[in-house]
C-alpha cells in the first residue's frame, strides 16, 4: 500500500461494510482509522475513537443497509463522536442510502423517511455526503450540505464491455429506470428497451409488455436496487418469452432480501452483476452472481474531495 502524502486525511468505518472500507483505505493509501462500534448489554451503540482526529478531514464509510436502523444509528453516533473530537470536516460515505424508497408521499399520511434520515445525518454534524446511485436523485436536495452522487454505470459497463457480448439491448425494468438504462446503453453503444409493468402492491410486480426490439438479442436488464428479485426475474422471463437469446442483469445495490436468492437461482438470468456497496452473506454468494468493487471510484472521490478537485470529472 502506497502512503498517501497527507496525514490529515483519515478514513473510518463502523460495522456495515468493513471489507469495503479496507479496500477504499488501501486504494487511497491510508491506514483504516482505529475505531470500534460496540454494543452495551442493553443494545445501545457506543463508538470508541482510539486515535486523534483533531484538525483532520475525516471520511466515514457506512452504507445504511440491513439491519438499517442499527447501521444508521452507528453512523449518527460516529459523526457525533468525531464532531466532539474536533475533526476539521466530517464526510459521510453512504454507498447505499437506506430508506431511499420512502422519498415521497405515495398515499395520504405517509412519512417521507428519506428526508428524515437526511435531517438526522445533518443534525449529527456531517458536513458532506458521498453516496452512490440514489433510488431517487432528488434526495440530494433533501440535504442542505454538499452531496456528491457517484454512478455505478461505468463499473457495470466496463464489465460488460470486457465480456465481448454481441447484439446487445439494454432493458429498463420500468419507466422510472430509463435514464439509467440509457446511460449504460450509450457506453455499450446499444439500443434500449423498456418493460411496461403494473405493480398491484409493494414487492409484487406484474409484467405487461415490452417496448423495443429484443428478439434474438442479448438483453441486459439494469436496475439500481434488487430487493426481493421479483421484478428482475419476471422481466427475464418476459424477455425470453419475447425471443431474447440471452438475459443478463445488473444493479448497484444487491439488497437481496426474502426469496431473492432462490428466485435468481431458478430464473432465466445467465449472470447477475452487482457491486459491493452492500456486503453479501455466504448464503447470497451463488454461481450466478458476480460482485464488482466500488472501492476505486469511492477512493478517487474521497481524494478529490480532500484535495478540493472536481468529482464529476470521474465520470467524463
From TrEMBL:
Gene Ontology BP, a term: ribonucleoside monophosphate biosynthetic process
Root EC class: transferase
Cofactor(s) it depends on: Mg(2+)
Molecular-function GO term, any one: ATP binding
Binding positions (ATP): 42-44, 101-102
Role, per record: Involved in the biosynthesis of the central metabolite phospho-alpha-D-ribosyl-1-pyrophosphate (PRPP) via the transfer of pyrophosphoryl group from ATP to 1-hydroxyl of ribose-5-phosphate (Rib-5-P).
Record-given protein name: Ribose-phosphate pyrophosphokinase
Naturally occurring in which organism (per UniProt): Brevibacillus nitrificans
Primary gene name: prs
Amino acid at each position: 500500500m502506497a502512503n498517501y502524502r497527507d496525514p490529515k486525511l483519515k478514513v473510518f468505518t463502523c460495522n456495515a461494510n468493513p471489507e469495503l472500507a479496507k479496500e477504499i483505505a488501501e486504494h487511497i493509501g491510508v491506514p483504516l482509522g482505529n475505531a470500534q462500534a460496540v454494543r452495551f448489554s442493553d443494545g445501545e451503540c457506543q463508538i470508541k475513537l482510539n486515535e486523534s482526529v483533531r484538525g483532520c478531514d475525516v471520511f466515514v464509510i457506512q452504507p445504511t443497509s440491513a439491519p438499517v436502523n442499527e447501521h444508521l444509528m452507528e453512523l449518527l453516533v460516529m459523526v457525533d463522536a468525531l464532531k466532539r473530537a474536533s475533526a476539521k470536516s466530517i464526510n459521510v460515505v453512504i454507498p447505499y442510502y437506506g430508506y431511499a424508497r420512502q422519498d415521497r408521499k405515495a398515499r395520504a399520511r405517509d412519512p417521507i423517511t428519506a428526508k428524515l434520515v437526511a435531517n438526522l445525518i445533518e443534525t449529527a454534524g456531517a458536513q458532506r455526503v458521498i453516496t452512490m446511485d440514489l433510488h431517487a436523485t432528488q434526495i440530494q436536495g433533501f440535504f442542505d450540505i454538499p452531496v456528491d452522487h457517484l454512478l455505478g454505470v461505468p463499473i457495470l459497463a466496463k464489465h460488460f464491455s470486457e465480456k465481448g457480448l454481441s447484439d446487445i439491448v439494454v432493458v429498463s425494468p420500468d419507466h422510472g429506470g430509463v435514464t439509467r438504462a440509457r446511460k449504460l446503453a450509450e457506453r455499450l453503444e446499444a439500443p434500449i428497451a423498456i418493460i411496461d409493468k403494473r405493480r398491484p402492491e409493494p414487492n409484487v410486480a406484474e409484467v405487461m409488455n415490452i417496448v423495443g426490439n429484443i428478439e434474438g438479442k442479448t438483453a441486459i436488464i439494469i436496475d439500481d436496487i434488487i430487493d426481493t428479485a421479483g421484478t428482475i426475474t419476471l422481466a427475464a422471463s418476459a424477455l425470453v418469452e419475447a425471443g431474447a437469446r440471452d438475459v443478463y442483469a445488473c444493479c448497484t445495490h444487491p439488497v437481496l432480501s426474502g426469496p431473492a436468492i432462490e428466485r435468481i437461482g431458478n430464473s432465466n438470468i445467465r449472470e447477475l452483476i452487482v457491486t459491493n456497496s452492500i456486503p453479501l452473506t455466504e448464503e447470497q454468494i451463488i454461481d450466478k452472481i458476480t460482485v464488482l468493487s466500488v472501492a476505486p471510484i469511492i477512493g478517487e472521490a474521497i481524494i478529490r474531495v480532500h484535495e478540493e478537485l472536481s468529482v464529476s470529472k470521474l465520470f467524463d
